[in-house]
Write a structure and sequence with these properties.
Blueprint: E1 3-4, H1 7-27, E2 33-39, H2 43-59, E3 62-68, H3 74-86, E4 92-95, H4 105-111, H5 123-131, H6 140-151, E5 160-164, H7 171-180, E6 184-188, H8 195-201, E7 204-207, E8 225-228, E9 232-234, E10 239-241, H9 246-249, E11 255-256, H10 263-278
Parallel strand pairs: 1-11, 2-3, 2-4, 5-6, 5-7, 7-8, 8-11
Antiparallel strand pairs: 9-10
Helix pairs in contact: 1-10, 2-10, 6-7, 6-10
Bound molecules: NADP nicotinamide-adenine-dinucleotide phosphate.
């Protein structure tokens, strides 16, 4: 039986550190504040927003919510981002994406100053992630993967890691973070040939594909650590499932994250942590 790498204990350990850092900031008269910018009312955004607000409240982080209508024009969106940039009482900004079609999402991401970009959406944040210096943060989910591996004591140095997915939100930043931790990383994508051969050879497999239970037992081998970032709705099962076929893979590998209750649980703890860091907190 594999060790089940649940997200809740990781989030709890991170939160304990965050609470201490928030207390120290408040003693200096600073209340760390997260600005949330939501355009329209996509149910996914509203659900994540609710979870983020709940976690921030629990940790003593203030939230300033900016809502814009789904038909907002580019100029008004950029003006709102600039207002958040210049608001000294807002330390971090989370902007939900995708944005509605009429908006230039890339330009909106670039308008956000990297030092407040707590979910790593700007080029400045990406540059600091890829170069190891500069302002900005890694995308929260990517960092959540690393936090989870670290808390469970998974050794990365010198290990082979296969990341399935190359998006800017998860696949590529996870690969960079694993590499920074001295793993040897292979980034796989939809044109990768013989994917199962690549994943079977790895010590650590991170699945970030967005394909419900795509990775079946043939993609894995004994002794592996599997992190499933995927969140997909399975019509057949009537519930959320990951990219990995958990029931088939769990008996085979050394350790595996569940979906839900795995990486997803850690993501908002990282968001809170980034906000506190952006406010000058010691974390
Ligand atoms: P995405 O932008 O759609 O990227 C998916 C990646 O998977 C792409 O690089 C794609 O390759 C690759 N891929 C797709 N089919 C493949 C196949 N058959 N073989 C190999 N690679 C394949 O998705 P994303 O935004 O990175 O999200 C990935 C998953 O994470 C989704 O399920 C999403 O819901 C979930 N997610 C989880 C959290 C969390 O907190 N746990 C947060 C955000 C997202 P190409 O580049 O070649 O197309």
């Amino acid at each position: 039986m594999a060790e089940i790498l649940k997200g809740a204990p990781v989030a709890a350990a991170l939160d304990a550190e965050t609470i201490a850092a928030v207390r120290a900031l408040k003693e200096r008269g600073v209340t760390p504040t997260l600005g949330i910018l939501r355009v329209g009312e996509r149910p996914d955004d509203v659900a994540y927003e609710r979870a983020a607000i709940k976690r921030c409240e629990k940790l003593g982080i203030a939230v300033k919510l900016s809502e814009l209508p789904a038909d907002v024009m580019q100029g008004a969106l950029i003006a709102r981002i600039q207002r958040l940039n210049s608001d000294a009482n807002v330390h971090g900004v989370l902007m939900f994406r995708p944005l509605p079609k009429q908006l230039d999402e890339r330009a909106a991401c670039e308008a956000l100053m990297p030092s407040k970009d707590v979910d790593g959406i700007s080029t400045g944040s990406a540059a600091s992630l890829y170069m190891g210096k500069g302002d900005g943060f890694a995308p929260c989910t990517a960092e959540a993967v690393l936090a989870l591996l670290k808390r469970y004591g998974v050794e990365l140095e010198g290990k082979n890691a296969a990341v399935v997915g190359r998006s800017l939100v998860i696949g590529r930043p996870v690969a960079m973070l694993l590499q920074a931790a001295n793993a040897t990383v292979t980034i796989c994508h939809s044109r990768t040939r013989n994917l199962a051969e690549v994943t079977r050879r790895a010590d650590i497999v991170v699945a970030a594909m967005g394909r419900a239970e795509f990775l079946t037992a043939e993609y894995f081998s004994p002794g592996q650590v599997v992190v499933d970032v995927g969140i997909n709705y399975s019509e057949a099962k009537g519930r959320l499932v990951g990219d990995v076929d958990f029931e088939a893979v769990e008996p085979l590998v050394r350790a595996i994250t569940p979906v839900p209750a795995g990486v997803g649980m850690v993501t908002s703890a990282i968001l809170a942590r980034h906000t506190v860091k952006a406010a000058g907190g010691a974390l």
